[in-house]
Amino acid sequence: MDQIREAILSGDRSIETYAGLAVPEAYRAATVHKDEVGIFEGMSTQEKDPRRSLHVEDVPVPELAPGEALVAVMASAINYNTVWTSIFEPVSTFGFLERYGRTSEFAERHDLPYHVVGSDLAGVVLRTGPGVTKWKPGTEVVAHCLSVELEDAEGHDDTMMDPQQRIWGFETNFGGLAELAVVKANQLMPKPAHLSWEEAASPGLVNSTAYRQLVSKNGAAMKLGDRVLVWGASGGLGSYATQMALAGGATPICVVSSPQKADICRSMGAELIIDRSAEDYRFWSEDGTEQNPNEWQRFGKRIRELTGGHDVDIVFEHPGRETFGASVYVARKGGTIVTCASTSGYMHEYDNRYLWMNLKRIVSSHFANYREAWEANDLVDRGIVHPTLSKTYRLEEVGQAALDVHRNAHQGKVGVLTLAPEAGLGVTDPEKRAGFESAINRFRDA
Ligand code: NAP
User: Fold this and answer.
1) Average pLDDT, the chain
2) Confidence band (pLDDT; 50, 70, 90) for 398?
3) Poorest-confidence range of 135-139, 163-167, 408-412?
4) What are the φ and ψ backbone dihedral angles of 75, each rounded to 5 degrees?
5) Is 344's C-beta closer than 6 angstroms to any atom of ligand 1?
6) pTM, whole model, 2 decimals?
7) Cα distance between residue 45 and residue 29, in whole Å
8) CATH code at 247?
């Protein structure tokens, strides 16, 4: 592995160099273990600690299947899906691997007693499998996390509709929180040259998701002038949704939970901010059984105060049960509530009268197709959207990194160095970077 790291650090990107490097038999990876899925039984979600379940260990390098690439991973990032995997909620991800494993001879490789997690990476292609022509060893890449087979007709308009659609590193094995990763070649995208490895690895999953959810015609199809309520506006998804709203000529109304997070939103250029902790909204009764429409009204009134009397065109939803009733209530007549998650609980309740009488729409969204992920990566490459990396850990500290996200103790994205020996490496276009330096660093400086 040292030779691979050295070749990458040397800056040599010739095909010959990388094709000539021996692929080691084993690599360091962050894993969860099948025989440990019961370790948190009886604990509350908050008590479950990813530092107990995430291991860093040597695992064998799998053989490449047709259409795949083996990537030397310099850096990765924590996504909430790794939190879910590490606390075995709402289900253990080994069920995904078992079911995938039953589908084909190559998929069988994924069904193992350990799961290499992680759905983002930045690195260099080491090897490609049979049939890959577009990507070569030595190319600097990032990867999006959509794994598809495309053997069925259904996926050919929008690859998210493929019946065999999976999220790499969550519903498949050999993920990005490791020194090596196996991806399908159609997950690869060019690494932005002005970013370090860990910066380049951090937007992928959330940036693509926010792009489909908010901008794409498959999501809310945001347009110039729209008012967009963004929950968790300084978090993983929200920090990209906020940037996209601002770049697209819309007005984000950012919901956060501390003055520090409010400042981060201001640093991105947002002006309308609601601190949900300071204003102490209680959408649910103490025992969590009933919602309080008076609190929805108080929240809606605050939005109108900020917008000069307007309701929002789009609600960018992901907290789920806790906020969904309020989200449906505050969307304008004819407005859209677009949802991709349920962090606080997936059994949502809302007052349907506010939906149908006001002709509102609930739109579902999930990750992004290759085209959408490519367009989202292009926004980063062109400096229209910037990484929101606040902190970077080493691979050995992956449990702590996941705990930060689990406890909502982070801002934006949390990075993880895998093969990269330190942060800040990998920038190949410093001139381009110079113009964006402060925007790239605003979450780190917060
Ligand atoms: P994140 O970095 O933790 O950010 C989420 C933010 O939401 C938090 O920072 C928090 O911000 C806010 N929040 C959390 N609980 C809340 C609550 N009860 N009420 C109001 N706000 C709350 O996570 P993320 O990466 O943005 O992911 C968020 C969710 O989306 C996760 O469940 C994740 O699994 C899911 N997700 C789904 C997809 C998909 O493709 N379907 C893709 C990415 C993520 P404040 O405390 O500042 O308000």
Assistant:
1) 97
2) very high
3) 408-412
4) -155, 155
5) yes
6) 0.97
7) 25
8) 3.40.50.720
Q: Is 81 in the pocket of ligand 1 (CB under 6 A)?
A: yes
Closest CA to 211 of 248, 158, 264: 248
pLDDT (0 to 100) of residue 445: 67
CA distance 434 to 323: 40
Contact 202, 388 (CB under 8 A): yes
77: domain CATH number is 3.90.180.10
Q: How far is the CA of 333 from the centre of ligand 1 (A)?
A: 26
Range of the domain at 106: 2-206+368-445
* Same-domain check for residues 275 and 245: yes
What ligand 1 atom has the least distance to the C-alpha of 237? 26
171 and 159: one domain?
yes
Residue 236 CA, ligand 1 centroid: distance in Å: 7
Average pLDDT, integer, range 315-322: 98
147 and 167 in contact (C-beta within 8 Å)? yes
Domain membership flag for residue 196 = yes
Q: For ligand 1, atom 23, name the residue with the nearest CA.
A: 236
Q: Which atom of ligand 1 is nearest the CA belonging to 81?
A: 34
Residue 95 pLDDT level (bands cut at 50, 70, 90): very high
DSSP single-letter state for residue 85? H
Q: Which of 364, 385, 407 is the last residue of a domain?
A: 364
Are 189 and 268 within one domain?
no
- The residue count for the chain: 446
Q: Is the CB of 138 under 6 A from ligand 1?
A: no
Q: Render pLDDT for 272-289 as a digit per residue (tens, 0 to 9).
A: 999 999 999 999 999 999
Q: 437: Cβ–Cβ under 8 A, 6 or more apart, which residues?
A: none
136 confidence band (pLDDT: 50, 70, 90): very high
Exposed e or buried b for every residue in 104-128, given b needs 16+ CB within 10 A? Answer: eebbebbbbebbbbbbbbbbbbbbb
Nearest-CA residue for ligand 1 atom 8 is 232
Q: How many CA atoms lie within 13 A of 402 on its CB side?
A: 30
Query: pLDDT grade, residue 444 (50/70/90)?
Result: confident
